[in-house]
Specification:
By secondary structure, the protein is an all-alpha fold. The chain is built from eleven helices and two strands; from the N terminus they run H-H-H-H-H-H-H-H-H-H-E-E-H. About 5% of the residues have low confidence. This is ADP,ATP carrier protein.
C-alpha cells in the first residue's frame, strides 16, 4: 500500500517540477552546453579586448573623412603601443552576457513569438541595453586621446557605462538589428542560393561547406549594411554638437554626416556618386566584424574539442577500471 504522505509529495513534485516536454510537444528552448558557455564567458571578452584597436580606428574614422584606413589604424597607436587599447577594458565585462546570452535569448524569443524578425528586434534591443554604455565610454576615451595626441583641446564628457542608453541609442539598436539579421534571417536564403548555384553548375557542395559559406556571406552582407549605422553611432557619441542638439538637430546632424562623408556633389549641388570614404568605412567594418567572429568561432571550437577530449579520456579510464 502506498504511503499517503509519499503520494502527496509525489503529486507536489510533479506539479512544481513538471517533466521536460517531449518531442511531440514541440521543441523547447535549447540552451548552450557548458563548453559554449565557457567559450562565451572567456572568449567573448578576450576577442572584444584584443581587437580594441580596430574598433577604436572605426571611432576615429567617424570624425575623419580624409585619412586612409591605414592612417587611422596608425593613429590609434600614436601615444604608444598600449594606446591602441584605450578604453578597451570598458566593454570587457558586458561582453560576457553579450556573448553567452544573446544566442539562447534569440531562440527563446523566436520560439515564444513564432517569428525570427520579432526575435531579432528584441534581441537587438537587449544587446543594446547590455553593451551601449560601455561601448560609448570606449569610443569617447579613444576619441579624447586622439584629440590630445593631435594637440587639440576638444574633449567630450565620458558617459557612465552603467546607464543602459545614451546618445545614438536608436542608431545603435538599428545597427544591431541589421547585424543580427545576417546570420539569423538571411543565412538560410543564402544557403538556398548556394544550393541552387551548385546544382546549376553540377557541383557537389558538402553540407558543412554550404552552411559555412551561407553564414559567411550573410554575415559579410550584414556587416556592410550595418557599417553606416555603426559610423553614425560613433559620430553621435563623439560629437558634442550632436549631444547638445534637440531631436530635430540630431536628425539634421546625422543627415549632414551621411551626406558629407558618403556622397559626392558637383558644382551645382547634385549628387554624382559615392565617396571613397564609404568604401573605406565598409572595409574597416568588415575587417573588424570578420576578424572578431572568426577568432571567437575558433575559440568555441577549441573549447568544444577540449571538452570532448576530456570526456573521451574519462570514458577510457572508466572502461579500463572495469
Amino acid at each position: 500500500m502506498v504511503d499517503r504522505d509519499s503520494e502527496l509529495r509525489s503529486r507536489c513534485f510533479r506539479r512544481c517540477c513538471p517533466r521536460r516536454p517531449s518531442a511531440a510537444c514541440g521543441p523547447g528552448v535549447k540552451f548552450p552546453e557548458a563548453p559554449l558557455i565557457l567559450a562565451g564567458a572567456f572568449g567573448g571578452p578576450f576577442c572584444i579586448f584584443l581587437y580594441t584597436p580596430l574598433r577604436n580606428a572605426l571611432t576615429l574614422a567617424s570624425q575623419n573623412a580624409e585619412s586612409s584606413a591605414w592612417q587611422l589604424y596608425c593613429s590609434t597607436f600614436e601615444g604608444g603601443f598600449s594606446s591602441g587599447w584605450t578604453g578597451g577594458f570598458a566593454p570587457v565585462l558586458p561582453s560576457c552576457p553579450q556573448f553567452c546570452v544573446m544566442g539562447p535569448l534569440f531562440h527563446f524569443f523566436k520560439e515564444a513569438l513564432g517569428s525570427a524578425v520579432l526575435a531579432v528586434l528584441l534581441s537587438a534591443l537587449a544587446e543594446t541595453t547590455i553593451s551601449i554604455g560601455s561601448q560609448t565610454l570606449n569610443a569617447q576615451m579613444a576619441f579624447n586621446r586622439d584629440q590630445r595626441n593631435a594637440g587639440s583641446d576638444v574633449q567630450v564628457p565620458l558617459w557612465n557605462p552603467l546607464i543602459p542608453y545614451g546618445p545614438g541609442t536608436v542608431v545603435h539598436v538599428t545597427r544591431n538589428i541589421v547585424a543580427l539579421s545576417g546570420i539569423r534571417i538571411f543565412s538560410k536564403p543564402c544557403q538556398a542560393a548556394l544550393r541552387w548555384a551548385a546544382r546549376m553548375l553540377h557541383i557537389e557542395l558538402p553540407e558543412g561547406v554550404r552552411l559555412f559559406l551561407g553564414d559567411f556571406v550573410a554575415s559579410l552582407g550584414a556587416a556592410v549594411l550595418s557599417a553606416p549605422f555603426n559610423q553614425l553611432y560613433n559620430f553621435a557619441v563623439t560629437s558634442q554638437a550632436y549631444m547638445d542638439a534637440g531631436p530635430t538637430g540630431k536628425v539634421t546632424a546625422m543627415m549632414g554626416f551621411l551626406m558629407e562623408n558618403y556622397l559626392v556633389f558637383n558644382g551645382d549641388g547634385e549628387v554624382v556618386g559615392l565617396s571613397s570614404t564609404l568604401a573605406r568605412d565598409l572595409c574597416m567594418r568588415c575587417a573588424y566584424v570578420a576578424t572578431l567572429y572568426t577568432t571567437f568561432s575558433a575559440i568555441e571550437r577549441l573549447f568544444v574539442f577540449l571538452a570532448e577530449s576530456r570526456k573521451r579520456r574519462r570514458n577510457g579510464k572508466a572502461k579500463a577500471a572495469e
